[in-house]
Structure formats: C-alpha cells, structure tokens
Design a protein that fits this description.
- The structure is a homodimer of 462-residue chains.
- With 462 residues, chain A is α+β, with helices and mostly antiparallel strands.
- The first copy, chain A, folds into two domains: 3-196 and 367-455, Aminopeptidase; 198-252 and 297-308 and 315-365, Alpha-Beta Plaits, CATH 3.30.70.360.
- Chain A is 35% helix and 21% strand.
- In chain A, strands 1, 2, 3, 6, 7, 8, 15, 16 and 17 form a nine-stranded mixed sheet that branches.
- Chain A is globular.
- At the A-B interface, strand 9, strand 10, helix 6, helix 8 and helix 9 of A face strand 9, strand 10, helix 6, helix 8 and helix 9 of B.
- Strand 11 (299-308) of chain A pairs antiparallel with strand 11 of chain B, so a sheet runs across the interface.
Chain lengths: 462, 462
C-alpha cells in the first residue's frame, strides 16, 4: 500500500468533510416534487466532484426519472473492474420538529455528523470517492478499474436503475460491485452483509354481499368476508411461525452448520432487540433461533388488514368487503415468480363458497446472496479490518436491497455490501447521523480494498 | 265484536291519518342532539293524543334521557291487562338527497304513506291508539285493561326503558305485552314473530410491538398481531359455520320437528334473499337450512377488523396493534352472561405468546321466545287474520329487539310481536313508507284482538 495515499487521506480530512457537507446541504428529497431542483442540483454537484477527482466519461444518464450519475477510470489493464454504487437522494426530513439541528445543515457534535443523508447514503458512498481522489491526486492512478453509478431514486423505490442495469449490462460490465449502504452489527463490530431477502408483496381482497348487511337479518345465511379472510390468513403460518404454503420451502437451502455456529457465536442480545421493538419477547421459526429466522429463513407478515366497521362502539353488520396486505421475504435460491404462483394458488384453494377471493401482486424482488469465501468479500473484509482496527462480522440481513440482487443477477458478479453505518444512525428518522471515525476509516478501508483486489489479479476470476 | 267500533274505524280513516301525520311531522330524531326540541314536542303530542282518546294517568315518565309516554285505562275488572309498547323516536333521515319526498312531510303515493317513521314505528304503534279511540268514542269502554308505554330512545339503544321496566315491574304489571314493530313474512303473508335473538357484542384488541416494525428487520422475530388475531378469529367458526367456542351450544334447544316442518313449508325463496343481499348464494350451519340457521340457531359474525397499513400500495410492516368486533346472536335459553364468559375464556385460550390479547364487552341482550300456542299469540293471530283477510305466518327473527325480552323476563308475561310493516318498507333508509291498508287493517286487527283477549278470560292465566 502506498504510504502517499494514506498520508493524503490523513491530511485531507477537513477537505473531505467540507466536500461532503456541500453534497449534504442539497435537499435531494426524491419523494417531494417541490424539491426537484435540489435533487437535480445534487446530481450536478456529484458529477462536478467525480470530474474533480479525476474520473472520466462523467455524465448524467437519464432513466426517465432522476438521472444516474456516472463516471469511470479504466486504465488498469489486467486488473479487476469494480462498480461502486450509491444513491444521492435522501428520505424526507419530516417530522421537522423532532430535529435537534437543521436537517440540511450538517452539524458536528462530538464524533458525529448530524444531517439527513449523512449516513444514508451520502456519507457512505462518499468514502469511496474520497479514496479514489487520494489515489488520483498522489500516485495518479487507481489500482483497479472503477465505474461509479449513483442513483437518485433509491428512496422512492427507483425502478429506473433496475431497467437501466438490465438493458446496459455491457456498459456496466465489471468484476465486482461494492456498496456501502448497510450498517455494522453493533457499535463495535463492522459488518459485511452477505445475504439479503427477496420480497413478494400481495394484497388479498375478499368480496361477499354487495353491501353491508344486518348481522341479525342475514347472520348464518350469508358468508362473512372477514371470517373467510381470517380462515385464509390463519393458514399462511402456524403458531410455530412455519409458513404453510405447499412447496414454499422447496428451494430453501438449509443453513450450513458452520454458518449456524458463526451466527450462534455472535453477541446477539435478544432482550435488547425485543426492548427496541417494544415486544414482550422474541419468537422464532420452529427450532431456529430468532436471529437465524430473521436472517436465514423466509418470513411472512400480514402488514395490514381491514373490513367492516372500525369506529367506536358497536355496529352489527356482515361487511361487504375485507382485505389484507401480506409481505413475504425470500431467501437465496427462492424465485419470487414461483413463490407468487404458489401463494396465489394456495390462497385461492383456501377460498370458501359464497365469497370471491382476489389476489393482487404489488411487487417482487429477488433475494441476494454472496459466498463469504468470495475473493472480493474476503479482500474487502481484511482491508476494512485493517482500516477500522476491528474484526469484521459476516452477517445476513432480513431486509431487502433489490438493486444488489439485480447487479448480481444481470452482471453475474459478486456484490460486496460493506457497511459504514451504525445501528443507531437513525436513517429515515429525525436526527440522522454519520459516525465521523467510520467515515474517515471507511475512506482508508476503500483504498486498502481496491489495492487488495489488484494484488492477486489471477484469483478474482474464479 | 261491536259493529259500532268497526263502523267508527271505517268512517274515521281520514281523521286517523291526519292525526298520524301530525306525529310524523315532528322530527323526533333521538340520535341528533339538535333535534331535542322536536323529540320532546313529539312526546308532548303523544300525551295529548292519549288524553284525547280517553286514557287516564297520562304522563311523561323521566328515565334520564327522553321520557316515556304513559297512559292507561283500567276499568275492565277480571279482564286481562295488556301493555302496548311502541317508540316515538325515529332514525335520522340522512342521506337526504335520496328521498323522493320530504322525509318529515308525510306524502301519500298510491297505497303508501311516505315519511321517516311512518312504518318504524309511528304508523305501527298508532294503529293501537286508533283502536282504543274507536272503543272509547263508541261503547265508552275497552274490552280489556290497557297500559300504553311509548319510548323515545329506541333508535339509540335506549337503556332508559330497560332500567325503568326492571325497577317498576309492579307499576307495569300486566297479562301480556303487544308490540307492533316488526314486519310481514312477505307482501302477502302477515306474521307474528315468536322468537328473537339475544346479542353479545365484543371487541378484541391484540397488541404486539410498541410501534410498527420493518417487516424485514424484524420478520420472524416479533409476533405479528394481525397474524395472531387471524388465528383467533379463524377458530370462532369453522367452514360449516359451526361456532367453535366450547360449551357454546350447551343450552340451545333442538328445533322441534313440527317447527322444522312449518319452516320448511314457508315459501322462503333463497335465490331472492341472496339477490337482495347481493350474495352469490346463501349458506347455512351444518345440515340446517339457511332460514333455520338465521331464525333458530345462534350466529356469529366478525363485524369489523383493522390493523397495520390500509392505504394504497405496499408498506412492509409488522403492525403494533390489531382489532376486531364480533357480534353473536343468541337463541332462547342461552344466557348472554354465560356466553360472554365462554367467549372471553376461549379467545384468551387462543392467544399466543408475544402478544397481549384483550376482550371488551360492548353490550349484551337476552334472547326472546314466546310459545306459538300461547293464548294471546293465538288470539292475536286469529284477530289479525280476520282483519287483514290473510293467513298469519309464525316466524322467528334473526335480529334482536332487546326490550321484548326484558318485558318477558321482568313482567313474566308473554309478548306478542304482531308486525304491520312490509319487508320493502325501507325502515332506517331513505323513502321509508307505511302501507295504508296495513295501517287501517291493523287498527281493526288490534280492536278484534283486544275483544278476543276478553272473551275467554279464564284461559289467559295459564
């Protein structure tokens, strides 16, 4: 590793920070049409920064909505090509009255930089840009080929990049994708997330009589849609939290014994997690532990349900309609399209006479999984361990980052999710913050990782 | 039967109608505080009418809310005493734009009188007052002793009269109660309803985590209140519509073979009922017919349910809370207090770990049943058959009229529910109407019934 690069990083902390602050000050709230100018200004500022760093082919790529910010540096022949993904849009800051400092005026308190987008995702993806700058401003070149893609619609479900990646696989071709948009296991344990859930989201609608009926005049004679729906929903899971859809687990691989061992060795504090959720206790599927269930097993939740009279007091009716929303999180190897068919067929099979049952699919996303043994994963882990001075945890995540799976499935390359956030960063909430040590050490980590990827270039093509 | 009385009724149709119209014009909407004056004016007008008829001890009886209107005539020693119940309050007329004629300006179109309250219940109870007038203005006396009690809070659940009856059983002592507040079997078949359902109404609340959780970050680890609630609700009934609460059917008497035969002989048109409900078909409990289920078997309905996200699109959460409202209609011999205990214990027993389940009882009402062979029932049937020129149907009703059961249980007398409404009277809806032939023939029917009660006074004390 070039000492020049490390020195540059050490000496330019203030410069990096001021540059990041400029990006943070722009209110790039993709969900709010009134902030359109600010979102576009943020995209422009990022292109300006990519150019200043020394990236080439810097451009805005239109996808119909907010543009992708693109730049590359491809002068390391024989070395791997790394695609760095991040997003420049942020969540709305509301509710504003809960912010202790102005959400778009980055404010340093102690070791933290407070602002909307500081952790999710401006501070995190910026660490990579700073690492690139450190190389290009000192040794004048990068150890690997780099493509940067920053999205502006991540916080609004961004279908634009999904379509673009699927249609421009050649342009984005690379050997690995690196994303810093996740967090640590806890405040002392940095983490690579090597598995994310896929997602199927359904809405079930049950229609009975054409209008609400008197429960006395029609009771027992007309099928009740809420009762019918409860029969269906009650058979989605049993009390052991096992999903009852026939064939649902067919493609789920057992958790490898060494992975179970690794997970069991983690200092997962069930009481603390229950407390954070405000739940009386944690549960789990069958004989799996709670954390195994959340990380490694598909899960199913009823996210909403409605029907009939919801006001105060009593109203004695057989409602005309009932409905429910159901999210299913899938693990690696499960195909959302297959699960969708299984779910729809199962729900329809549970339908009773006298009501009409319809199932609508809202969205589906493929699960993501990368082998922990993968060359890029291992190199990244070592590099960041060195930079952060802390041992890396390999963890799964019960949540979904659909773009990671899209990169992997379209570009056929590993995706490394190296998180710089902390669990208490309050992303999506008031008083979001980024740990400054994490930001600065993250720059070092990225620099060390790029160099590590280049060192043994024969091995990455496995 | 005195021909004088019948002649008076025949000659005074217009006078009766004008008197009824005066009562109808008052907007006695007990649910709307702004109409308080109108409700009280209506009570005053009814007392005025009772006095004009020739009743004695006419008074307003305060029960805390709107007063009872009371009057009696007790100069038939050795003859039975009949308590006539009705209510002078009406449902709100809204939605007003659906009325074809002004709701409080009684309008005759063809054979019908259109107005709010015309059928429910001003026209129906007024038939009794007119019959009394016909006696007192001709022969100068009634064939039986009569007590009239008119309530002003029936449409708002009226607890006032319930308490009053329980505390003043001696004052209201009688040999039978007559109520005209029900309807015919169909447009050609007048009916006595000899059985009404009791009612238990519950609200179930399930609380899980203290706030909505991310279904990815907590899926499988935190118990879902909507899933937990669906497990509970799914076990209230099975798909054969059998109620699964242990002990629930213990006190339910089998339907007598002759009653089953009578019910089967009625021209109950399942297709027409399904069409009216906008349902694809009727269902029933086990091997009972649909009409047997609704009339003679206890029924259970989920009247409302809620929890989580009910808006458009997808929101991936484990909701913090879920709730449902459940109505149970009881048949004769079932005790609401006992059923309440069985229900609460059963629901609690279905509760799973990780959530808190609470059950709140909104209301309960005892079921009502009178023997079809009862002296007053039989006499009433014959009298109205003569007056209406149509054969009487004995039917049960799946709905509840709690005061009927209270009269029966407190005063220990039979209650005769002789309906003058037609199934298409649109009570509680816009364009409510009362059939004028039913109103006038109902006056005759009441007169003939009073006389029939007096004829064989030895038999009523059975």
């Amino acid at each position: 590793m070039s000492q020049q690069v490390l020195d540059y990083i050490a000496k330019n902390k203030n410069h990096f920070l001021e540059s990041l602050k400029q990006v943070i000050r722009l209110e790039s709230i993709s969900a709010q049409p009134a902030k359109k100018d600010q979102v576009l200004k943020c995209a422009d500022l990022e292109t300006k920064i990519l150019k200043e760093i020394g990236l080439e082919h810097v451009q805005l790529i239109s996808t119909g909505g907010y543009p992708l910010v693109y730049g590359d540096w491809l002068h390391a022949p024989g070395k791997p090509t790394i695609l760095i993904y991040g997003h420049y849009d942020v969540q709305p800051p509301e509710p504003l009255d809960l912010w202790k400092t102005p959400p778009f005026e980055p404010t340093i308190v102690g070791d933290n930089l407070y602002a909307r987008g500081s952790s999710d995702n401006k501070g995190q993806h910026f660490s990579h840009l700073c690492a690139m700058e450190a190389y290009l401003k000192t040794v004048g070149k990068l150890p690997v080929n780099i493509k940067v893609v920053l999205e502006g619609e991540e916080e609004v479900g961004g279908g634009g990049i999904d379509k673009y990646v699927r249609e421009h696989g050649k342009f984005l071709a690379c050997d690995a994708v690196m994303i810093s948009d996740t967090d640590w296991f806890d405040s002392e344990r940095p983490a690579i997330s090597y598995s994310l859930k896929g997602l199927c989201y359904f809405e079930i609608g049950v229609t009975g009589p054409s209008h609400d009926l008197h429960s006395g005049l029609y009771g027992g004679m007309v099928r009740n849609p809420l009762q019918s729906l409860s029969w269906i929903l009650s058979k989605l899971k049993n009390e052991k939290e096992e999903i009852l859809i026939p064939g649902f687990y067919d493609d789920v691989k057992p958790i490898a014994p060494d992975e179970r061992k690794d997970i069991a060795a983690l200092p997962f504090d069930a009481n603390k997690v229950a407390e954070g959720a405000g739940a009386s206790r944690l549960i789990s599927e069958g004989t799996f532990s709670s954390v195994e269930t959340n990380w490694c097993r598909p899960t199913l939740d009823i996210c909403g349900m409605w029907g009939g009279y919801e006001g105060v007091g009593s109203k004695t009716i057989i409602p005309s309609k009932a409905g429910a929303k159901v999210s299913i999180r899938l693990v690696a190897n499960q195909d959302p399209k297959k699960i969708e068919k299984l779910f729809v067929n199962y729900v329809k099979s549970l339908s009773v006479d006298g009501v009409k049952v319809e199932v609508h699919t809202h969205s589906s996303g493929i699960p993501f999984h990368v082998e922990r043994e993968n060359f890029f994963v291992q190199k990244t882990a070592k590099a960041y361990e060195t930079a952060l001075g802390k041992k890396m945890v390999f963890k799964r995540l019960g949540a979904s980052i659909p773009i990671a799976a899209v990169f992997q499935s379209v570009l056929k390359v590993p995706v490394v999710l190296i998180g710089l956030g902390l669990p208490d960063d309050r992303v999506h909430s008031p008083n979001e913050k980024m740990s400054l040590p994490n930001f600065f050490d993250g720059i070092k980590g990225a620099a060390l990782a790029y160099e590590a990827f280049a060192e043994e270039n024969a091995k990455f093509k496995s």
